[in-house]
Design brief:
- By secondary structure, the chain is an alpha+beta fold.
- A hairpin with an 8-residue loop joins strand 3 and strand 4.
- It is globular, with a radius of gyration of 17 Å.
- It is about 20% helix and about 30% strand.
């Protein structure tokens, strides 16, 4: 069962578990979050379908937004494109970041990309960081932290696992909050998700 964190007449926000694609990848027939949600709606006899307004990597857990219908999907995607939706993530990164906060500016595929971060806690060989991407490039957070010498714990795509003693079964990245002005009601919406269970267990295994 996929936890629903928020729902109204136009919108559903769910807490995605790690290990699920948002939508099918080319030439792959794996189960996806979108497929599971819509199968559940069909089983309940509901006529509408959910359409993702943004994506999360397969390994990333946390909040993801769905629209009940294509027209509202377009409205929400416009908000994301115009940077009118504030997103924050919790990431565990390799090593102890020296500065308490900072901004990473590094283009991705020739497009400007900006990531803000704040260190919440430093442990013996990793840092717990709150991350706010200003732009939404693919794999932006993972690429940016690798660029400053602190790849995410569990990273294997943008860093060599053998270079780091600290291991995790997946990239330690969780989409924790979403904040935006509802495009139809005009009300402010703020949604927060508890950090994923496997990341909590990682913290228990690696105390300060």
């Amino acid at each position: 069962m996929i936890p629903i964190i928020y729902e109204d007449d136009w919108l559903v926000i769910v807490d995605k578990p790690a290990g699920l694609l948002t939508i099918p990848a080319p030439d792959k027939k794996l189960r996806t979050l979108t497929g599971i949600l819509n199968e559940d709606l069909k089983a309940k006899g509901l006529a509408y379908r959910l359409h993702p307004c943004h994506r999360l990597d397969k390994e990333t857990s946390g909040l993801i937004t769905y629209a009940k219908g294509k027209s509202f999907q377009e409205k929400m995607m416009a908000l994301f494109k115009e940077h009118k939706i504030q997103k924050t993530y919790i990431a565990f990164v390799q090593g102890r970041i020296k500065q308490d906060s900072g901004i990473i500016r590094k283009s991705i595929e020739v497009k400007a990309a900006v990531t803000h971060f704040k260190v919440l806690e430093r442990r013996s060989n990793f840092s717990i960081v709150e991350v706010r991407p200003e732009t939404g490039r693919k794999n932006q957070i993972r690429i940016h932290f690798k660029a400053i010498g602190h790849p995410l714990v569990g990273e294997t795509k943008f860093a060599f696992r053998k270079d780091y003693a600290l291991r995790a079964k997946r990239v330690c990245l969780h989409a924790k909050t979403l904040e935006f002005k509802h495009p139809l009601t005009g009300k402010s919406v703020y949604i927060e998700s508890d950090i994923a269970g496997d990341m909590e267990k990682f913290l228990e295994k690696h105390p300060a």
